[in-house]
Predict the 3D structure of the following.
Amino acid sequence: KKKNNDLVYISSGPENFENSMKVYKDIKIETNKYFYPEKILMKTIEKFCDFNNLNLKILGRARDDDSEKCELDFYQNLLKKRLDKNYYSFKNKYQSSYEVCDQSKICVCIYSALGLEILSRYCKTVIFNFRSEATQLENLNIFSPMRVRNNGEFWSSEMDQNKILEKLTYVNNLREDQWRNTLNNFKLINLLGRDEGNKNFIKLLNEKN
């Protein structure tokens, strides 16, 4: 119910210092190309947070100490402020990634399953769908295989600073009821639905028994 004054960025890595990374099957992408969108986005997010007095926090993907160091160094090189106290990891023992997002004022991602999952929890979330353009791989469109226009109320495919600030400002200023209406009008259930209390699963189990 109570939100922290945080903007949480959901990280996609990097988790190692290698020059290329496997995306799927036999396809590899240069690390610099894959993470080029972060270099565009993070500086603008930091500017937005400073202007709106929000705490910028990185929700990391790393699962071990070496990966965490790589990931933290990557973001630290992109940002002015030190991240030592603002850095979260999925292996946080005291708080799940869902709790971090639930408690934040606004969340941001580029390409993350968690970003879609928290939309189904009605967390205020802005998606900058830049990965497919940067890599020229359509499968890295976060909405794939669903066909979604390039720009909408809470997402954008344009790597433009003004567009980024526009989307962040719009979602940040929405009242909770306006945000829920926005998601419902988008027909979020077609992208990723959330079955509160696992009702469908329980119903299936009862039918089998």
Notes: The chain has a mean pLDDT of 89. The two ends are 38 Å apart (CA to CA). The longest strand covers residues 4-10. Strands lie at 4-10, 20-24, 27-30, 55-60, 87-89, 104-109, 125-128, 151-152, 155-156.
